[in-house]
Amino acid sequence: MRTDVFGKAIADFYNNSHEENIKTFSSLQEEDILPVAYLFRDYRTMPILEKLALKACMGHVLDIGCGAGSHSLYLASKGHSITALDASPGAIEICKKRGLEDVVQSDFWTYKGGKFDTLLLLMNGIGLVGKLSKLNDFFRKIREHLNPGGQVLFDSSDIIYMFEKTEDGRYLVASDDAYYGEVNYIMHYKDMKSDPFNWLYVDFNTISEAAQFHGFQCDLVRKGSHYDYLAKLTLGV
User: Fold this and answer.
1) Band of the pLDDT at 168, cuts 50, 70, 90?
2) Residue 164 covered by a domain
3) Apex CA 159: angle with CA 131 and CA 197, to 5°?
4) Domain-embedded: residue 167
5) For labeling, which of 4, 28, 154, 209 is most exposed (least CB within 10 Å)?
6) For residues 90, 93, 97 and 101, what is the CA-based torsion angle, rounded to 10 degrees?
C-alpha cells in the first residue's frame, strides 16, 4: 500500500499511546474495527492458536507481516533467531524501537532473503496471498525460503459462517467463479485511506489439497473456537 495506514497507526500508538482505531471496510461488511492496542499485546493475552504457533517455532524464524513486532519480540526473548518482515515502513521503524535487530522492510513477494527453519504467518498472515489463484505462487515462494526440514506455521479461518444458510443447510454463496474466502479491503485511520487490497481466508481442506499438489504436507495443529484453525506446512519426503 502506498499510503502506510498501518504503519502510521502503529507509530502513533507507540509514540503517544494514541487510542484511535483502524477502521476496515470490506466486500463482506461495511465497517469493522481493529484496535491498534491489540497489535502490541503480550504473550499472556494472545489467542491460544498464536501461543501454540509460537511454541512450535524452531530455528531461524521469518516473521512474515510482523506488524508491531509482538510475536518476534516474544520469540527473541526465548532465544530464537528472528527476522521480522513487513511491507510497512512505519511498522518496521517501531519494531526497531521496540528492540528487534534483524528487521526488513519488504513485500513478501519481492523479499530476497535466505532460507529459514520456520516461516510464521499469524493473524491470518496467509491472507497476503489475496486470491486463491495465487496459491501456486505462494507455494513456490515458501519453497524458496525453507531450509530442509523447515516448516510454515499459519492460522486462517473458514468464513463460510458469514453467509446465509438455506432451509436445507446450504450456504448462499455467489455463483460466480470467485472463492468465497476472497475479500477486498480498504483501511482508514484518521484522515488516511489505504489503497484497496485483496485478502484471502482459506478453509483447511482447500489449503490442504493445494499443498498436496505442490508437494507439501499440511497438518491441522488445532481448531479454534470459531471456524479458525492453526496449521503446519512441511515439504513432503
Assistant:
1) low
2) no
3) 35
4) no
5) 209
6) 140
What residues contact 79, with CB distance under 8 A and at least 6 apart? none
Q: Structural domain of residue 137, as residue ranges?
A: 5-157+172-232
CATH code, 153: 3.40.50.150
Q: Within its chain, how far is the Cα of 148 from the centroid? A: 23
Q: Distance between CA 214 and CA 154 in Å, rounded?
A: 17
Q: Is residue 11 part of a domain?
A: yes
Distant-in-sequence contacts of 109-114, Cβ < 8 A, 24+ apart: 109/137, 109/141, 111/85, 111/145, 113/62, 113/83, 113/85, 113/145, 114/145
List residues bridging with 192 in a β-sheet: 189
Report d(CA 208, CA 232) in Å as an integer: 10
Percentage, residues of the chain above pLDDT 90: 86
Q: What is the pLDDT of residues 51-69, one digit of tens each?
A: 999 999 999 999 999 999 9
Give how many domains the chain has, as a whole number: 1
Distance in angstroms (rounded) separating the CA atoms of residues 156 and 65: 14
Task: Tell me the three cell numbers of residue 235.
Answer: 515439504
Q: In what order do the strands lie in the sheet with 216-223?
A: 103-105, 81-86, 60-64, 116-121, 146-157, 228-235, 216-223
